[in-house]
Amino acid sequence: MTQRRTLLTGALATAGLVAVVPAWAQALVRTSFGPTTTDISTGHAGHSSLPQALGYWREEGLQSEVFGIAGNTAGLQLISAGNIDFISIVGEELMQAQVRGIPLRAVYMHARQPISRIVVTKASGIASLAELKGKAVGMPVLGPSPYAAAMFKEAGIDMQKDIRLVATGTGAPALLALRRGDIAGWISWDTAVAGLENRGMEFTEFRPGYFNELFGNAVIAREEMIRDRPQLVVGMCRAIAKAVHFGLANPDAAIRIHWRAYPQTKPQGGDEARLLEEARRVFLARFNSYALNGVANYGESLPAQWKRVADQMKEAGELPQDFDPARAYTNQFVEQINAWDRSAVEAQARGWTGN
User: Fold this and answer.
1) Where does the SsuA/THI5-like domain start and stop, copy by copy (predicted)?
2) Is the pLDDT higher at 201 or at 5?
């Protein structure tokens, strides 16, 4: 049962939100989306439970299955092999994949701020990144983290040589490692950090001075998909945009919908009001970065942000100097992705009754 619920359609059928009727299912185009995490929390509702449960994907003629993927590397392997159609991934990983010859491109800017976080416990007394030199630092899954590498470099630390990286997973294992002092800091993402805060952890977060010049993750697709099936790309992303707008208009409704779709994400027992408050912390940790800050359209990439990230990576030796960041994304679908009535979605969100 647990394994089956990593697939959203199975979870929805279990929760009774969608009746899987062969008559309509056969008429829909089958596609797939992969968040690059197996912890599909309320913060991931915009590209998992909401577009499915609210019927947004179905309105686009799509039957989309959502698979939790264990990390960026696995996600890139799956999409490059054609085993999944879309994944969400940070821009740094995408550009490095392009250098390796993997024909992928961002079709939808999702998180408009970095989703990565570097934190230490307040109890540790650590007041700067420089104090982590020579110490063990945890990560959910060992792998490249250009965001963290650039921050450590700014602090005079070589991330690969001056600290010991430890794979911790998320949730309880990471919590235990932090509480026991097995790791002095944690490199993770926003929703995972918020989840540990709900378990009583108090963190100090370090951010670079250029934090607001960066971005988080994007929805990416293979070049052949962009070329040969543009309406599939538009449908996938338009449903996500509507789901994000719904969630921003009524976070509590979005959380309850997600709990019904993914029952295992709702903590068992306890006061309902407290559970909702904690879920809201995780939800807003990600959804706040989805908001239209400085742009008019969902999914729109800003060239200056891509250039800023690419220049940072070039300086760190992670991209060749002649790499053109404009090849990493496209805004060709933005107008179509935003061709829907925002006021109607807002009214739907405000009027949601739980049925």
Assistant:
1) 52-254
2) 201
What pLDDT is recorded for position 72?
85
CA–CA distance from 145 to each of 72, 92, 165, 323 (Å)? 10, 8, 11, 19
Per-residue confidence at 21, pLDDT binned at 50, 70, 90? very low
Give the Å distances, CA to CA, from 273 to 199, 269, 270.
16, 11, 9
The H-or-E segment that residue 191 falls in is helix 190-197
The residue whose two tokens read 């300086």 is: 315
Q: Quick one: tokens of 198?
A: 């709900």
**CATH class of the domain at 116-213:** alpha beta
- Asked: is 4-113+214-350 a CATH 3.40.190.10 domain? The reply is yes
184 contacts: CB under 8 Å, gap ≥ 6? 120, 124, 126, 132, 135, 136, 137
Residue type, 6: T
Residue 320, Cβ density class (10 Å: 0-12 exposed, 13-18 middle, ≥19 buried): exposed
Q: How many other C-beta atoms can be found within 10 angstroms of the C-beta atom of residue 353?
A: 5
Query: CB count, 10 Å around CB of 204?
Result: 16
Distance CA 323, CA 321 (A): 6
Residue 86, beta-bridge partner list: 33, 221
Taking the CA atoms of the chain, what radius of gyration do you get in angstroms? 20
Residues 6+ apart with CB under 8 A from 124: 184
With a CB cutoff of 8 Å and minimum separation 6, the contacts of 270 are none
Read off φ and ψ for residue 258, nearest 5 degrees.
-65, -40
**Other beta carbons less than 10 A from residue 346's beta carbon:** 15
What are the residue ranges spanned by the domains of the chain?
4-113+214-350, 116-213
Asked whether the beta carbons of 52 and 12 are under 8 A apart, the reply is yes
Question: Can you read off the two tokens belonging to residue 95?
Answer: 């550009």
Query: The tokens 């647990």 sit on which residue?
Result: 2
Mean pLDDT value of segment 175-185: 96
Task: Tell me the backbone φ, ψ of residue 19, rounded to 5 degrees.
Answer: -90, 115
Cross-strand bridge partners of residue 203: 121
